[in-house]
Design a protein that fits this description.
Blueprint: E1 9-10, E2 31-33, E3 42-45, H1 51-63, E4 68-71, H2 77-88, E5 92-96, E6 99-103, E7 111-114, H3 119-130, E8 133-139, H4 150-158, E9 163-164, E10 173-178, E11 184-188, H5 195-204, E12 211-215, H6 223-235, E13 240-243, E14 246-249, E15 258-260, H7 269-278, E16 281-285, H8 298-304, E17 308-312, E18 315-319, E19 328-330, H9 338-346, E20 352-355, H10 367-377, E21 381-385, E22 388-392, E23 399-401, H11 407-419, E24 423-426, H12 438-446
Parallel strand pairs: 1-3, 3-16, 4-15, 7-8, 11-12, 19-20, 23-24
Antiparallel strand pairs: 2-24, 4-6, 5-6, 8-10, 9-10, 12-14, 13-14, 16-18, 17-18, 20-22, 21-22
Helix pairs in contact: 1-2, 1-3, 1-6, 3-5, 5-6, 7-11, 9-11
Length: 447
């Protein structure tokens, strides 16, 4: 097997040789036999763009005074839903090679927005819709109707928006846009999702009085995503000030003409985990020197779990040392990494305790309950905590690993399958939410 320095990078959609994608991979409910690694995984990866950055970039470009080119965006179900929602409001979005050209236009209804199960669409677009003229209706997948959005809707009403949700604080709902939002100061509990704050900040410069958001309640999760929002707003010429549990956006124009999207570091998690689990070596090309992405924390987490991390001109490399250690970690700020960390923990030689992640119960599925159920189903030992998991080492066996239509659950099943023969992941196609061809990328990395 070639070493990582001489191997060709794995590219999304590139798959020389036989098609590794099982027939069931594109069928909801089908089972995908997770490949077991017969030797250390050695690969060099070129990953698609960050979903979080892509969808923030599209919103900022739609609100900009000037046309904008979003370079190297992620093309996946979530980003397609975001682009579709903005097009429905009158924004021009066209493909130029690998980039997206965004042409702002007067926002207008009537329109219908399908949020799918994309939290960024469900939360970032209603404030934009409140700036439109006309009624904009929102609905999505069944799970989206269960995900929290009531705090955001209440905040928008307090800022002057007209929203009809039937008193449910959930989808379906309608935003009756008047072409303007008063804005001002508002207090909300964002402990359920940092996206509540980001949603108001992204559109806040276009509110008549700007917006001053205060958080009251348990700590806000996913701080790196808030940092990302603030950094991208400032790059767009928006004045933002931040204090403890307080964010202020001054009214004014949004001016952005070019945004380059970083590789999605959270999507690197299962591939780096493959190096750790198999004692191999995986390099992720283009890993940024400075980033606000939560996935950057993988460097520290996987080092603590037995890996060795280094940087070179090629990117970031993780080497497995042949040992997999458990970890005691508060993952509040990087909750989206939990499924992969839990999968590695299930294969470790010492216990793990993962805490600070109560908010994961309201993601694509209740990830805490789902991870415990699926690890235990395969013979592992995982115990639910109110805000996390305790995972103890135990030999595991093959079986069906249910994905719950959750992309990160599906990839965590693939990680366990590296070391446990006979694992079958249900509905691997759900990974398209953020990674267009995970089965193909996985097969190439293992090849």
């Amino acid at each position: 097997m070639p070493d990582s320095a001489s191997s060709q990078p794995v590219q999304p959609g590139r798959n020389p040789g036989a098609d590794p994608t099982p027939r069931s991979a594109g069928t909801p409910g089908g089972h995908w036999p997770a490949p077991t690694a017969g030797r250390p995984v050695r690969a060099r990866l070129s990953l698609p763009g960050s979903k979080s950055m892509t969808n923030r970039a599209l919103v900022l470009a739609a609100l900009s005074e000037t046309p904008c080119l979003v370079r190297r965006p992620l093309i996946s179900r979530d980003s397609e839903l975001m682009a579709g929602s903005l097009r429905a409001l009158g924004v021009g979005i066209t493909t130029e090679g690998e980039d997206l050209a965004v042409t702002p236009a007067p926002l207008r209804g009537p329109a219908s927005v399908d949020v799918g199960n994309a939290g960024t669409v469900m939360r970032f677009v209603p404030p934009v819709a409140a700036l439109a003229s006309g009624t904009v209706e929102f609905d999505g997948d069944p799970r989206a109707r269960e995900r929290p959005v009531g705090e955001l809707l209440a905040a928008l009403r307090a800022l002057g928006a007209d929203i009809d949700d039937g008193g449910r604080g959930a989808l379906p709902m309608a935003v009756h846009g008047t072409g303007a939002v008063r804005g001002g100061e508002v207090t909300l509990d964002a402990s359920g999702s940092s996206q509540f704050v980001s949603a108001l900040l992204l559109s806040g410069a276009r509110f008549t009085e700007g917006v001053h958001v205060r958080h009251s309640g348990p700590p806000v999760p996913s701080q790196p995503h808030l940092d990302m929002t603030v950094e991208m707003l400032r790059a767009a010429g928006v004045a933002v000030s931040v204090a403890e549990n307080s964010w202020r956006v001054e009214p004014g124009p949004v001016k952005v003409c070019d945004i380059t999207v970083e590789p999605d570091l959270s999507n690197a998690a299962p591939f780096l985990a493959a190096a750790l689990v198999t004692g191999g070596e995986v390099t992720v090309e283009g890993w940024p020197e400075h980033t606000t992405q939560p996935g950057d924390e993988l460097r520290s987490l996987f080092t603590r779990m037995g890996g060795e991390v280094s940087r070179s001109s090629e990117g970031l490399t993780l080497r497995g040392t042949g040992r997999i250690l458990g970890i005691d970690a508060d993952l509040r700020d990087v909750g989206e990494l939990t499924p992969t960390v839990a999968a590695v923990a299930a294969l470790a030689t010492t216990p793990s305790r993962l805490t600070g992640i109560a908010h994961l119960r309201r993601h694509e599925t209740d990830r805490i309950a789902a991870l415990a159920a699926e690890i235990n189903r395969l013979g592992g030992d995982a115990e639910e905590l109110p805000d996390g998991l305790v995972i103890n080492p135990r030999p595991m066996r093959g079986g069906v690993f249910h994905s719950y239509d959750d992309h990160r659950m599906a990839t965590s099943g693939a990680v366990i399958g590296l070391a446990v023969p006979g694992v079958e992941v249900e509905n691997i196609a759900t990974t398209r939410k953020t990674l267009p061809d995970f089965p193909g990328l996985w097969a190439e990395a293992l090849a």
